[in-house]
Amino acid sequence: MTAPNVTVGGGGPASVRVRFAPSPTGYLHVGGARTALFNWLFARRHVGTMILRIEDTDLERSTEASTRTILEGLEWLGITWDEGPFFQSREVAAHRALALRFLEAGMAYHCFCAADELDRKRREAEAGGAAWKYDRTCLRLAPDEVRRRLAAGQPSVLRFRVGEGPVVWDDAVHGTTSFDASVLEDIILLRSNGSPTYNLSCVSDDIAMRVTHVIRGDDHLSNTPKQILIYRAAGAAVPIFAHLPLILGADKKRLSKRHGAVSVTEYRDRGYLPEALFNFLALLGWSPGGGREKLSREEMVGAFDLEAINRKGAVFDEQKLEWINSQYINDLPAARIAAMIGPDLAREGLWASDLAEGGARRAWFLAVCEALKARSKRIPDFRRDLRPFLSDRFEYQPEAVAKHLSAGAKGGDPAMIAARMGRLRDALGRTEPFTEAKAEETLRALAEADGEAAALYIHPLRLALLGTAVSPGVFVVLVLIGRERALARIDRLIAFLQSGQTP
RNA sequence: GUCCCCAUCGUCUAGCCUGGCCCAGGACACCGCCCUUUCAAGGCGGGAACACGGGUUCAAAUCCCGUUGGGGACGCCA
After folding, report:
1. Known catalytic residue: A133?
2. What is the structure's pLDDT at A13?
3. Binning pLDDT at 50, 70 and 90, where does residue A1 land?
4. Measured in angstroms, what separates residue A317's CA from nucleotide B62's C1'?
5. Which residue minimizes Cα–C1' distance to B71?
6. Which nucleotides on strand B sit less than 7 A from a protein beta carbon?
7. pLDDT per residue over A18-51, tens digit each?
8. Which residue is nearest to nucleotide B2 (CA to C1')?
9. Burial status of residue A126 (CB atoms within 10 A of its CB: 0-12, 13-18, 19 or more)
């Protein structure tokens, strides 16, 4: 059967075809996500085709739930695919057919050595400090003997016979890379239960899917010579390989669970934006040059080049991710923030229907989100800061009280502060119109008349309004809270000051 | 241990292929200043790196060799 002369994506016969091939044995790891992302960038850059293939041949560990999380993670990141998802387990017949072809051609042979026996030999050799590779015991078996054992039902694996000499390829990231075949042991193609192994399945599928570029992690570097041998034996064109450097933890070791969050969904749940994670991951091991760091997907696609990928592993620095995230939050429309924070607010009982689109307080709500943007690094920061805007039930933060209301504070004793707040309350009650500028004018005029620093009014006012020592500009907050509620909150503070509860 | 890969500020990186423009540029983080009612944001400034040793060359971060260090792979997992 020859491939019909059709192309998907209109790129012509030589069109780029890449694939992301995760095994569904867990969540979508940020390393995997970056591999997918680079494949996607490369496919888009060359108007090629991105294939998604789920390598679910390990029936023991593969789960549907895992497949779902992976798809969900890719979708959330905006990494789309043109073909698939294909499931590798459905192609088992094709994988075996290829292995059998090798057997018939004398390029593969049955091996009856028991797994535990080989394990023992390996351990012994390694204990003696020597490298171990399969000793080809079964390659020396006479054909009659092989037939006899097969007929007797003795279990066997099918091994690919590795030849001699160097296996060299021009890696798109690393340049010329080579392994000598003498370090490779004869590759197991089919397990004793007849199921195909990774190297066989992977190559078989990549040939069938006409994959032109294999872009994957550095951890596959040592599989590459084995796979090249299989491509050659199959008489298929060897694709171009591009091995990406690994993502490392702070200790420079391969990023794993013990370093903290590693799954894409975890980052999503912690309030990172998909575009921010995407941008951050793209910059791990790749740079468009020119000092550009915050790039849109389109800009990345336009600048992407495999040759520009670094050869060195890159440490995942969450602080930088947080910074990029804050940059993206800064130019996020308030409506999107509202959409993301809505469910969180509902969970805390802070949501009301008039905050939703079309609701009476919608515009006000968006204005509050807008005011909070500049000091938010992650989405949950909004939930924290939004509370006193949405509810009158908030506590005075102890640090804020200690700093601005205590007897030792700059403002003097609580009675003096209360007196000041009383005057401020009255003045604000008369301020017309109740705008940011006018309110500021009122407060400053009052401070001047009292011969005091404006700060002595401002800090307690912020505390009265939000319970905090930190917030957006206090006059913005004042207007956002509204006169009526603001005056009530000042009264509440005065009562608190007079209650003797201040430190 | 064997094989392979890698090596520029603490971290991400530009520069390396095509040696001189680099006593090395940007970003995060850190520190300081400005702005300012606070915290941020923003602006300005600061400290901070070519792993080491040889070689080639008039000239090396850049090319070559070695050393050291780090990582990955060594499964009838993928």
Report:
1. no
2. 54
3. very low
4. 28
5. A253
6. 1-8, 10-15, 25-29, 37-42, 70-78
7. 999 999 999 999 999 999 999 999 999 999 999 9
8. A131
9. exposed
